[in-house]
Amino acid sequence: MKDPAEYYMRDRRLHPPAYVPGYKTSVARSPRQALISLENTLSEITGPRFGHSDIEPRDNDLLTNYAAAGESAIGERIILHGRILDQDAKPVRNTLVEVWQANAGGRYRHKKDNYLASMDPNFGGCGRTLTDDDGHYFFRTVKPGAYPWPNQVNSWRPAHIHLSIFGSAFAQRLITQCYFEGDPLIPLCPIVQTIPDPAAIDRLVARLDVNQTIPFDAIAYRFDIVLRGRRSTLFENRLEGN
């Protein structure tokens, strides 16, 4: 039997094109010239690095990490968890995972977010954690609300959480977002519609995980992230998924 290949060929048909007229922002963002490959510098490859000393005890608890003492964020309490895996389904250990999201009303804690939904004074919308030896990560948070955006007359973004995964150095960073099972806005979203393969869209959906739900506390969703290979999660910043 031959040894498995070190890398799996990428199916480029899975990835959205850079220019999609129906996704208005892509018109200005998409490149008009051939891309230029820039080599990383030694400092970008070797550091800075992240470790357990960079993580505070409540960093992965968005319910309380911004709240006043004894308070909690408002909204549907959920657990978002999963594993970070490589192309051979092996765990990616001790890697930094960061999340950011809108609050339960669909509003970000950002000075330029002028959506009329209320601002939750006890919700910052950001968190971070390190994967364990099994590649597992875990966040407590609220389920974000949908919100309108000026793409077309009546465009709404589905509920979603942004995730950032760091490698062994600062320049090794991948960004994606997860949606939630059963959300009727997913197939209507112009951003989601840029992805040509339904199976690739499906890999961006967090699944209800009843076994990890905490009774009378929080509903759990599982979202595994694969960094490379045929089952790679789609990433926003690099198409190769590594």
From TrEMBL:
Top-level taxon of the source organism: Bacteria
InterPro entries in the cross-refs: Intradiol_dOase_C, Intradiol_dOase_core, Intradiol_RC_Dioxygenase, PCDO_beta_N, Protocat_dOase_b
Enzyme class: oxidoreductase
Gene3D superfamilies, A to Z: Aromatic compound dioxygenase (2.60.130.10)
Residue ranges annotated for the Intradiol ring-cleavage dioxygenases domain, each copy included: 45-229
Domain Protocatechuate 3,4-dioxygenase beta subunit N-terminal: 8-41
Pfam families the record matches: Dioxygenase_C, PCDO_beta_N
The keyword Kinase belongs to this UniProt entry's keyword annotation: no
Keyword Oxidoreductase: yes
EC id: 1.13.11.3
Alphabetic keyword roster: Dioxygenase, Oxidoreductase, Plasmid
An example molecular function term from Gene Ontology annotations: protocatechuate 3,4-dioxygenase activity
Family: Belongs to the intradiol ring-cleavage dioxygenase family.
Protein name: Protocatechuate 3,4-dioxygenase subunit beta
Organism: Sulfitobacter faviae
